[in-house]
Specification:
It is a single chain. This protein has about 575 residues and is α/β, with parallel strands linked by helices. The chain folds into 2 domains: about 130 residues, no CATH class; about 375 residues, Peptidase S8/S53 domain (Rossmann fold). Helix content is about 30%, strand content about 20%. The protein has 15 helices and 26 strands. The strands form 8 sheets. Strands 11, 12, 13, 14, 16, 18, 19 and 22 form an 8-stranded mixed sheet that branches. The protein has a 4-stranded antiparallel sheet with strand order 4-5-3-9, with helices on both faces. The longest helix is centred in the C-terminal third of the chain and has 21 residues. The relative contact order is 0.13.
Length: about 575
């Protein structure tokens, strides 16, 4: 009897030591190894506090995607009838039973969740490494990004209770590895005194591109926009600050027809700021505001500075800025972002969740544009590789990826990242355009890319030798970082004309861009290639290609294509 009592007591102790809910743990996400460039330093300290984010299953994400296409496809009866915040939230908010089940499980384990997104589809918890290892049957370790020396705590696999499989999409940060995102662009020329360029009348005269050169090349109007409700959001990350004095000097030199006092407004989140000392000026931020304020004449521009107090679980603020915009009653009609990373660093579930966040913005009427990256077929930046490296978020089908061209007789820039996603399939709007390119490509590079993946970029603009003012002096920069704000400015000016005519802004662009009218309104770029991975990369070709997409903007043609 004594032995039996001791045995039963031992079982009781074990039962109390490990919550009942942990018994049905099932593997949820796993990766074989850390991405290239990350080295393990061994198990993380058991008392280290982790801020984990849980993405809950959304009520009707397919319904949201259908609604997005419905309001974004020109042939649809509901084209332009963008959704309200409440309508979007109704699609993505988790069901009551999901919230109850997850909260009950967390409470059993002594944890309380905090709402982290407007719809409540992301929640946050804080716990120690020791507790997280037990809760998720994981082994959290410290990994060092060898290039930057930055440490992060990750696990190569984790589990959740079987009963919660239908309620939790993912836990982050776990198996996704975040590098500092792509940016800033490459400085092409030494800093030099500012020399006014004048308002050139012919793009062929341009060796360094200025607003006047781009106005000539793409037919972009110089007349000021009139609609104050229309605006551009410029995303700012990694302590890149937009300098107002640099913008003033830029306008004085290169937009003498505008008031040099024209500026941007500042919005901040996650502890973001925008110091104005000359030494704090950022190449990327200066470029982005100079080619939105200075090209989208009269369109209000907001520089959104995201600090490093991330609320999105070490996603570098990428989800935070989306949630920030979604929480507005009226989000900015255009958002341009010149940052990104390699798709392979992220888990499929995390990439999918972020992509669906961009779908929410598109459904609200925001045109979301991202630079495609600067590594050709080798990813966000040039690197050694054997198979082609897709970038993120360019592979997401719910945004517009912008590649780069070079020269006044445009051709694809060698740096222009482009290819095919390994996560996202081909969207319907791209099916025929992509099929035509693959037929032309034939068996070239077979096995180096995913032929069934979503192709990117969608469009392009000048991305080499773009003149800016930085730290009070002139220089030129190169990268798809240049192309995204340039194309975004064109869209913002189109939106101004649409709103003035009593119509809706364009919102999610791709169904329009890939339509017959959209394709015909762009300058098709048929030469150039994007080398990488010890290859010459994809060749540009007639129609869509993974170097320049569908081509570069022609303002007059686009204006006609939107019915004005």
């Amino acid at each position: 009897m004594v032995k039996v009592a001791i045995f039963l007591a031992s079982l009781l102790t074990l039962a109390l030591a490990k919550p009942h809910a942990a018994r049905d743990l099932r593997l949820h996400e796993r990766r074989e190894r850390a991405p290239a460039g990350f080295a393990s330093k061994g198990p993380a300290a058991s008392d280290k506090v982790l801020r984990l984010r849980l993405a809950l299953r959304q009520t009707d994400i397919k319904g949201l995607q259908d609604a997005l296409y419905d309001v974004s496809t020109p042939s649809s009866a509901n084209y332009g009838q963008h959704l309200s915040k409440e309508e979007v939230n109704a699609f993505v908010a988790p069901k009551a039973e999901t919230v109850a089940a997850v909260n009950a499980w967390l409470a059993e384990n002594g944890l309380t969740a905090t709402k982290m997104s407007p719809a409540g589809d992301w929640i946050g918890i804080q716990t120690t490494v020791e507790k997280a290892n037990e809760l998720f049957d994981a082994q959290f370790s410290t990994f060092t990004h060898e290039e930057s020396g930055v440490d992060s705590i990750r696990t190569l696999e984790y589990s959740i209770p079987e009963s919660l499989k239908e309620h939790i999409n993912l836990v982050h940060p776990t198996i996704s590895f975040t590098r500092r995102p792509l940016g800033p662009p490459t400085v092409s020329t030494p800093l030099s005194p500012i020399v006014p360029q004048g308002n050139l009348t012919a793009a062929a005269s341009c060796s360094t591109f200025t607003p006047a050169c781009l106005q000539s090349l793409y037919g972009i109007p110089t007349t000021a926009a009139t609609e104050s409700t229309n605006s551009i959001a410029v995303a700012g990350f990694i302590e890149q600050y937009a300098n107002a004095a640099d913008l003033k000097s830029f306008l004085t030199a290169d937009r003498s027809d505008m008031s040099s006092s024209t500026t941007f407004t500042l919005e901040t989140l996650d502890g973001g700021s925008n110091p104005q000392t000359t030494s704090k000026a950022g190449v990327e931020a200066d470029l982005d505001v100079q080619y939105t304020v200075g090209l989208a004449t009269g369109v209000p521009t907001a520089f959104i500075s995201v600090g490093d107090n991330y609320q999105d679980g070490d996603l570098e603020g990428f989800l935070d800025i989306v949630n920030y915009l979604l929480d507005k009653d009226t989000p900015n009609q255009v958002m341009t972002t010149s940052y990104g990373e390699n798709e392979s660093d992220m888990s499929v579930a995390l990439a999918d969740s972020l992509c669906n966040a961009y779908a929410q913005l598109g459904a609200r009427g925001t045109s979301v544009l991202f630079a495609s990256g600067d590594g050709g077929v080798s990813g966000s930046q040039s690197q050694s590789c054997t198979t082609f490296v897709p970038t993120f978020p360019s592979g997401c089908p719910f945004l517009t990826s912008v590649g780069a061209t070079t020269g006044t007789s445009e051709k694809g820039a060698t740096l222009s990242a482009g290819g095919f996603s390994n996560i996202f399939g081909t969207p319907d709007y791209q099916t025929s355009a992509k099929a035509a390119y693959l037929q032309t490509l034939g068996s070239t590079y077979s096995g180096k890319y995913n032929a069934s993946g979503r192709g990117y970029p969608d469009v392009a603009a000048i991305g080499q030798s773009v003149g800016i003012v930085y730290e009070g002096r002139s220089t030129s920069v190169s990268g798809t970082s240049c192309a995204s704000p340039i194309f975004a400015s064109v869209i913002a000016l189109l939106n101004d004309r649409l709103i003035a005519a009593g119509q809706s802004p364009l919102g999610f662009l791709n169904p329009f861009l890939y339509s017959d009218a959209g394709v015909a309104a762009l300058n098709d770029i048929t030469s150039g290639n994007n080398p990488g991975c010890s290859t010459t990369g994809f060749p540009a070709a007639a129609g869509w290609d993974p170097v320049t997409g569908l081509g570069t903007p022609n303002f007059a043609n686009l204006l006609a294509a939107v019915g004005l």
